[in-house]
Amino acid sequence: MENFQISGSAGVRQGVLRSLNLRSEEVERTVLMFLVYTLTSVGLIWLELSTVGLFLDEFGADKMPWIYIASAFIGSGLGFVYSWLQKILPLRRTVVVVLAMMSIPLFLFRFGIGYENTKIAGVSIAFITIFLMWLWVEACYVLNDLNTSITSNQLFNIREIKRTYPLVSSGYLVAGVVSGFSLPVLLYVVGLKNVTLISGLMVATGSVLLYYLTEKYSQAFPETARWTDDDEDDDQEEFTARKVTGPLQKYAVPLVSFFILAEVVYVLVDFQFYSQLEYQNPGDGASWIASFLGIYEGIQGLFQVATQWFASSRLVERIGVFVTAMILPAGIAILGVLTIGASLGQLVSVFIGLILLRFLDELLHYTLLETVSPVLFQPIPDNIRSGIQTLVNGVGEPLSCGATGVGILIMLWVTGKILPQQDENVFHDQQSLIFIGAIVILALLWVFVVWLIRSQYVGLLVKSAERGRLGVTDVDLKALKRAVVETLQKPGGEDEKRSCIELLTQIDPKNVGEVLAPLLDSLSPGLQRQSLETMLQHPNPAYLESVRVLSQQSLPPEVLALALRYIWLTEAEPNIESLRPYLQPTVDPVVRGTAAALIMRRGDRQQKAEATNTLRQMLTHKQERERVMGTRALGEADYLQGLRLHIPNLLQDESLRVRCALLDVISSTHSEEYYPSLLRGLGYKSTREAALQAIVKLHNDAIPLLVYLAEDIHKPDLVRLQAWTALGQIGTPEAIDILVSNLMTTWGTTRRNILRILLKMPSEAGIEGVLDRIGRSGLETLIEQELMFIGQIYAGLVDLSGVTTYGNFSERDANSTGAPGNDTAQLLQRALAGLEADARDRCFLLMKFLYPLDTVQAAAFNIASGQPSLVARGLEILDNTVDIARKRSLINLLDQNSQREKLSNLSELMVYKPLAPSDRLRRLLELRHFLSDWALSCCFHLAREARWSLTAQQTLVCLQHPTGFVREAVLAYLKIASPRALVELLPRLQNDPDNLVSAQVEEMMAEFGAGGKR
After folding, report:
1. Are 909 and 879 in contact (CB under 8 A)?
2. What's the CA gap between 390 and 354, in Å, rounded?
3. Residue partners of 273: CB distance under 8 A and separation at least 6
């Protein structure tokens, strides 16, 4: 019962994690980051709402433009401070220090609020304090978001953050709900002026929690300051060298305008909302404003959380990115027009209209807009994407905020001059209506900019598809389909059009006919063939008529054959008689074979007999093309009774094309009796590719055959590699299960091959498969295994470094060998050095499952160069990327230290105890399953020349090794170490499959037979 309860709770936990799209090893980090972001955001929102209440009550909304202007400069200034801190402090200290620095002024502000009557240069200290409070709040929001983003990027790798960051970032929305509803209670308990102290306490608590998080996961952060001056100069030169020209420039300009207009409209709505709120003050002062804003923030937060969690992504999928992007500006424009009309008709007050405007802007700005923003940047190449994002977020938005502040001041001055001076409330309402009119105009301009982005986005999608740069999950599907249609309809190069079809096939293979079928008539024969092949992967009767119309035209044989096949597969009651004219000998073999195969599927007995006779004639024809097309037709026919007799002859056909086509037939018809022919085909270079494709077509049916072949240690390595490759290309969950399970149990070349196969699987299916099955912890365990193995190699290199064998040889032995004894020791040392290099390569391959492939590859390239400056750069890349528990050991291992220093750095994983050379050699042979064949043979050659004794178990086991030269080395060792045992073993080895070993055995038998026992 207890076990049942445990398993039940574990099942519930896994269900919850799946619903949140989290893995168990990510939960703690995600929850802690969520708490840090939520706590600090709650404190900042309390402070913001209290500051707004104090500011509006004391000084009025007309001073707010100066806030917008000043915030543009303070945000940029603090960004430089943040960058400077990263130069002098390790990153895990920087993020904590920044958060702690955010809280310190919050405690000091409380003392400045009370000095209303004390002035400096004619300005009260209270005004200065409240003004600084608002600026500090705006700056803290920027710093908090930046801090959260940077910390999350360190704690989670590129694949983890896709799942975890949406949950972490929702902490701000949750904080809006909590802080909004709790603020009125907080004001009642501590008073408005003391809220700054509570806010500071919340931010300080967040910094303490962040300190605990960075200490617990210290390996996720680099140990040193992040950037050096040289690196910064290089990066600056690299960035400035990049040019944004042509179509990319046409896209970047409206893209930047999109975010600038979003910020401008947001600031204008924000200003008018607070301006109206000031005039609605019933006289209770700042507390009423703060309480109202708290309730407003809480209600709005509830809607934001619901929208972000349940609506944003679904809405984007349903209506597309650009329609979603237009919702906010179009909604603002419509609501603004309605507000103006209702206010002029005295149906609704301006204040109510502005509440609705701000609610809509806040709701969609932090939900839908945040959701679509990353997609808009995707067509931009990776090498300049971050620069443009920095330009938008770090420069464009702050400057547009400041420019909007200046614009507001100008509009206030102009409206003050042109509007009649009458009742203050009437004047204020008229002024607000002018501002709302400006907001409507800007919103309409914003909609136009979205339309411009969409048109340029289409062009860049085509370019990206042509260059193979665009990911299949990074695009708006509706926009992509429009792009393909426009590209296929306009004159242009066929390569570009072919690339578009290929990309569309990758993204939406089931619905490609929706785009391609109406265009079949206008395409070139090559594109018609490609389109029909793509549509045949998922035939749909909805597009039958378009293909039927195409088949009635004059078409190349290959296209006509594909059209006939599509009609046959999608038509409910195909007319078999319409195919009989294609059986005539004068018809091209491609069409004739296709027609015969289709008739054999669903024709009556007479029709099948006629089609069988046609195929028999093709299979026995003297012309190679006839036999090839006849053989290919067999793969499409379900009825092979009379034609099976030809398969053995076709397997021996003189034509390679026929034999390769027959391998595909065996796969297509699932002829199990000929499956061994598929496996044999992997062993020959001429048929290897065709056999591989045929086996892959069997999908899960081929897995038992491939596993048997891949795990047979007596098969050539190349054949075993083809078996693993086929499993990777099959790519089903069952195939990935086999690959991952063998990844955990194999070693050396086999493990390296499996790692590469998993990494090459499309859409990162192999990477996700490994993470789903063994998780991050499993990958870290594999890396630790490699590090421990490298430690054993270093121990062997150190203990065997001084080995010489001159003194162990008699004069006769020395003359017979003709080579100094220490040559063998050097061979073993070089073999061990090769094993160490292979293990390092496997470490880098394993890291590619956790971190961006290009980043790991850059680090590996720099470290492999051997140049001190490049090695340092590579280690710096790893230090800022890797966050595994054994990070320090890995980096020290890759550094240019001596072998003894590297051994000491691996003390956490293995304890090095110096051994005598002979003992170390025996220790290496205990690890024989991890050694390469060459290193293993070198061990026996060294033992032979140095006259070191090995255990009987080590010798006998290696005598059965599948590699011939290893058995050869063991026999040479036994000849010196134990001639009597060798004499007993030699008769059993006479039939060794390796010619060199069998010749060695015959030579030894002749020697011992002539000389007797020695």
Report:
1. no
2. 32
3. 354, 355, 357, 358
pTM, full prediction: 0.76
Q: What is the DSSP string of 833-898?
A: HHHHHHHHHHHHHHHTTTS-HHHHHHHHHHHHH--HHHHHHHHHHHHHH---TTHHHHHHHHSS--
CA distance 340 to 434: 9
C-alpha 668, offset from chain centre: 34
Residue 124: strand pairing partners: 119
Among 2-11, 45-54, 328-337, 820-829, the range scoring the smallest mean pLDDT is 2-11
Is the pLDDT score of 630 beyond 80? yes
Rounded Cα gap, residues 504 and 297, in angstroms: 43
Report the pLDDT value the prediction gives residue 606, as an integer from 0 to 100. Answer: 86
Confidence of residue 785 (pLDDT cuts 50, 70, 90): very high
State pLDDT tens for residues 483-492. Answer: 677 777 777 7
Cα 680 from Cα 652, distance rounded (Å):
13
- pLDDT over threshold 70, residue 244: no
Residue with tokens 């069409």: 591
Q: CA–CA separation, 710 vs 719, rounded Å? A: 8
User: 603-609: long-range contacts at Cβ-Cβ below 8 A with a sequence spacing of 24 or more?
Assistant: 603/576, 604/576, 607/576, 607/580, 608/639
| Residue recorded with tokens 């896994």 | 14
Per-residue pLDDT averaged across 312-334, rounded? 82
Q: Between vectors from CA 109 to CA 69 and to CA 278, what angle results, nearest 5°?
A: 55
- Provide the token pair at 11: 């099942």
With bands split at pLDDT 50, 70 and 90, how would you rate the model's confidence at 743?
very high
DSSP for 440-487?
HHHHHHHHHHHHHHHHHHHHHHHHHHHHT---TTSS-HHHHHHHHHHH
Q: Which two tokens stand for residue 33?
A: 């980051």
Each residue of 873-921: pLDDT tens digit?
888 888 878 888 888 888 888 888 888 888 888 888 888 899 999 999 9
Q: Distance of CA 734 to CAs 37, 704, 707, 721, 739, Å?
A: 40, 11, 12, 18, 9
How many other β-carbons are positioned within 10 Å of the β-carbon of residue 896?
13
pLDDT tens digits, 646-659: 888 888 889 999 99
Residue 710 pLDDT: 92
Selection from 286, 256, 482 nearest residue 377 by Cα: 256
Q: What is the average per-residue pLDDT within 385-411?
A: 75
For residues 336, 339, 344, 346, the Cα torsion angle rounded to the nearest 10 degrees is: 180
Q: What is the DSSP string of 28-79?
A: HHHHHHHHHHHHHHHHHHHHHHHHHHHHHHHT-GGGHHHHHHHHHHHHHHHH
Name the residue among 623, 678, 688, 682 with its Cα closest to residue 647. 678
Q: What is the pLDDT of residue 1010?
A: 41
What is the sign, positive or negative, of the torsion defined by CA atoms of 677, 679, 682, 688? positive
Encode pLDDT of 186-234 as tens digits: 888 888 778 888 888 999 999 999 999 998 888 888 766 544 444 444 4
CA distances from 149 to 34, 95, 179, 444 (A): 12, 10, 22, 32
496, two tokens: 């570009």
Alpha helices by DSSP H, 552-646: 557-570, 589-602, 605-619, 624-634
What whole-number distance in Å separates Cα of residue 531 and Cα of residue 626?
A: 26
In the numeric block, the tokens 């040479």 are attached to: 972
The residue with greater pLDDT, 893 or 9, is 893
